[in-house]
Design goal:
Blueprint: H1 2-33, E1 45-46, H2 47-65, H3 68-71, H4 76-79, H5 86-118, E2 125-126, H6 131-153, H7 160-177, H8 184-194, H9 220-244
Parallel strand pairs: 1-2
Helix pairs in contact: 1-5, 2-5, 2-6, 5-9, 6-7, 6-9
């Protein structure tokens, strides 16, 4: 049954990779034809900042593959008749999706490096000490987003894509509105929502201990740790909910 998810993940990655490659090709053509110019000095670029930015690619793919198991709601009754434990089937789906998210992260990173080389910035990229932390933070937030969609969509047959789509509005818009001067009641609701918002824990390349991350004023190490705790909790909950649900 996980073969269906492999095909779905491959389709998502194919489209995602094609779009990024097309953007790179358009930039290359513009450079060759003289329509694009890069002027001014070339500032130094930390590799950790690039890795943080690439996390958005992983988040996009995470929200695209997360509804995969939900899309099979109508055929789960057949899948459960296989001589394989239900948690094992769910874990296979998750493994395929996590692999797709990691591939998307790596591919985005490669494309960004290609853009930097094309624009003449590659020589100004430097490796810094925050690379492992940036990678863990970005991947953790992407997988946290994935896990939350899996949990919320579990009881909603055929509504996985809706949940994934709405999550962008809730997490991105909700995070942006948190600092707005709303009445206390609305602000309390926004605060509660943002505790479960992957963007709240996304460091965005900043490892300054005094940096304010919306609701939480914590350093990047703690934010990353909390994000991975969410990953563990949501994935365990997803396995439990999907393997015990009635079909």
């Amino acid at each position: 049954m996980e073969y269906v998810e492999i095909l779905r993940a491959r389709r998502v990655l194919t489209w995602y990779c094609a779009v990024l490659l097309a953007a790179l090709a358009i930039t290359a053509v513009s450079m060759v034809s003289g329509h694009a110019h890069v002027g001014g000095g070339h500032p130094s670029i930390a590799l950790s900042a690039i890795l943080s930015g690439c996390a958005f690619g992983a988040m996009i793919v995470a929200t695209c593959v997360a509804p995969g198991l939900n899309a099979e709601s109508n055929t789960l009754a057949i899948a459960w008749t296989r001589p394989v434990p239900r948690p094992s089937i769910v874990l296979r789906y998750i493994a395929v999706d996590v692999a797709a998210i990691i591939v998307a992260y790596a591919y985005t990173f490669a494309i960004v490096l290609a853009f930097c080389a094309l624009l003449g910035f590659f020589g100004h990229i430097f490796a810094d000490a925050d690379i492992p932390l940036a990678l863990l933070n970005g991947l953790g937030c992407a997988l946290m987003w994935y896990g939350l969609i899996m949990v919320v969509a579990a009881p909603l047959n055929g509504r996985g894509n809706l949940v994934a789509g709405l999550s962008w509005g809730v997490f991105v818009v909700g995070g942006a509105l948190w600092a707005a001067p709303f009445p206390a009641a609305i602000h309390t609701i926004l605060t509660f929502v943002n505790y479960f918002n992957p963007m709240t824990y996304f460091a965005g390349g900043s490892t300054d201990d005094n940096h304010s991350h919306h609701v939480l004023m914590l350093n990047t190490e703690i934010l990353t740790l909390i994000a991975w705790v969410f990953v563990a909790v949501t994935l365990v909950a997803a396995v439990r909910l999907w393997s015990t649900r009635e079909v």
